[in-house]
Write a structure and sequence with these properties.
Layout lengths: L1 H4 L13 H8 L5 H14 L3 H9 L15 H14 L3 H9 L3 H5 L7 H15 L2 H7 L3 H13 L5 H17 L2 H4 L3 H8 L5 H14 L3 H9 L3 H7 L5 H14 L3 H9 L2 H9 L4 H4 L3 H21 L3 H9 L1 H9 L5 H14 L4
Helix pairs in contact: 2-3, 3-5, 5-8, 8-9, 8-11, 9-11, 10-11, 10-13, 11-14, 13-14, 14-17, 16-17, 17-21, 19-21, 21-24, 23-24
C-alpha cells in the first residue's frame, strides 16, 4: 500500500539530515530519470530553511555545476529551478555569488529549453536586486544586451523572460551604466519602449533612466531620437511607465541638446498637465500608487526647472506661473513636491 502512494516523479527520502546528502549522491547517477527524481525532491526539500542551510553550508552547491551542462534539457531546467529556489533566501544568494556556478549558468541564457531560459533569468534577476549581485553580473551585461537584441528577432520569447532581462539590465546599470551604453543599450532599449506590453515598456523605461544618468547616456538619448518616444510615454496608460519616462527626460534635459529637443517637442504643456492633475483622486489611491504618482510629479517638476534655464522654456513657464505657485504654496501638499515646485518657481522668476 505504501508503495502505491509513492510519487513516481520524486526520489525516496532518507530520514532527517541524511536526506540532502542522499539526494545529491543520486544526482551523480547516470540514469536521467534518477537525476530528475532527485532534483524534484530537492526542490521540495529546499523550501525548508534547515534543508536549504544544510545544502549551502554542506558544500553541496558546487555539485550542481555538472548538471548545468547535462545533455538532457529537463535536467538543466530542474537544476536552474533549484537554484532559483535557493536564491529566495539571503544565505542561498550569497552562496551562489561565492560559487563557481555563475559562468556555466550564464551559458544557459540561450538554452534550447524555454523553461531553462526562464529559470536562468529568474536566478540572475534575484541576484541583481542586491548590490553585490549587480556588481557580480556587470561583466555579463554585454551578453544580456546581445540577448536583448536577439529577442527583437524572436518576438515569441515570453513576456516574463523579457521583463526579467530588462529588470536585470536596469539593476546592473544603476550600479554602472557604462557596460550597457557600450553595448548599444540606448538604441536597443528604445525599441522596447514601443512594446505592446506595459510591463516591458515599464522595465525598458526604467533601464533607460539608469543609462541617462551619465553624460554619455544623455548624449546618446538625444542622438538616437528616443525623446519623441519618451514624450509620448508621458501619456501612457500605466503610471509607472509615465514616471520612468519622465525620469529619463529629467536627466536628459540637463544638457543643452536635451533641453532644445524637448522644447521642440512641445513637452512643457504635457508636463504642466501632469503637475496640475487634480489631487482628489490621490487621496483614494493605495500607498504604491501614491508613490508612483509622487515620482511622476517630482520628475516633471524637476524637468520643468531645467527647461526654465532656457529662454524659450522660461517664457512658456512664466505664462503658467500660477499653476506652479499653487503647487509650491499648498499647505497640504507633499513636502518634497512643495520644495520641488518652489525651486521651479525660483528658477522661472529669476532675473539676472
Amino acid at each position: 500500500m505504501a508503495g502505491a502512494l509513492m510519487d513516481p516523479t520524486r526520489a525516496p527520502l532518507a530520514f532527517g539530515r541524511r536526506a540532502v546528502p542522499q539526494l545529491f549522491e543520486q544526482l551523480q547517477r547516470p540514469e536521467t530519470g534518477t537525476r530528475l527524481r532527485a532534483l524534484a525532491s530537492l526542490c521540495d526539500l529546499i523550501h525548508d530553511p534547515e534543508r536549504l542551510y544544510q545544502t549551502v553550508k554542506g558544500g553541496f552547491l558546487e555539485r550542481l555545476k555538472v548538471l548545468l551542462k547535462d545533455e538532457d534539457p529537463s535536467v538543466r531546467a530542474r537544476t536552474c529551478e533549484l537554484l532559483h529556489l535557493l536564491t529566495a533566501h539571503s544565505v542561498g544568494r550569497q552562496a551562489l555569488l561565492s560559487s563557481s556556478l555563475l559562468p556555466p549558468l550564464s551559458q544557459l541564457l540561450g538554452d534550447s529549453s524555454s523553461s531553462c531560459r526562464r529559470n536562468v533569468h529568474r536566478v540572475l534577476n534575484r541576484l541583481a536586486l542586491l548590490p553585490a549581485g549587480a556588481e557580480a553580473l556587470l561583466t555579463l551585461v554585454p551578453k544580456l544586451m546581445l540577448k536583448l537584441r536577439d529577442d527583437e528577432d524572436e518576438e515569441e520569447e515570453e513576456e516574463e523572460v523579457q521583463v526579467l532581462l530588462l529588470s536585470t539590465i536596469s539593476c546592473c546599470s544603476r550600479l554602472d551604466a557604462l557596460p550597457a551604453l557600450a553595448s548599444d543599450g540606448v538604441s536597443l532599449l528604445g525599441h522596447k519602449l514601443l512594446h505592446r506590453s506595459p510591463n516591458i515598456r515599464r522595465e525598458a523605461a526604467a533601464a533607460m533612466m539608469a543609462l541617462s544618468i551619465p553624460e554619455d547616456g544623455k548624449r546618446q538619448v538625444c542622438k538616437e531620437a528616443v525623446l519623441p518616444v519618451l514624450v509620448g510615454l508621458l501619456q501612457d496608460e500605466d503610471m509607472e511607465v509615465q514616471a520612468n519616462a519622465a525620469g529619463v527626460i529629467m536627466y536628459t534635459v540637463i544638457i543643452t541638446t536635451g533641453k532644445q529637443q524637448c522644447l521642440d517637442l512641445d513637452v512643457v504643456p504635457v508636463l504642466l498637465a501632469l503637475v496640475s492633475k487634480e489631487t482628489e483622486e490621490e487621496e483614494e489611491e493605495d500607498l504604491e500608487r501614491r508613490r508612483r504618482r509622487k515620482a511622476l510629479i517630482l520628475y516633471s517638476l524637476r524637468t520643468l526647472t531645467s527647461l526654465a534655464e532656457a529662454p524659450d522654456g522660461r517664457r512658456l513657464l512664466l505664462e503658467q506661473l500660477p499653476l506652479l505657485l499653487r503647487r509650491s504654496e499648498a499647505a497640504e501638499e507633499d513636502r518634497d513636491i512643495r520644495r520641488a515646485a518652489q525651486t521651479a518657481v525660483r528658477v522661472v522668476t529669476w532675473t539676472p
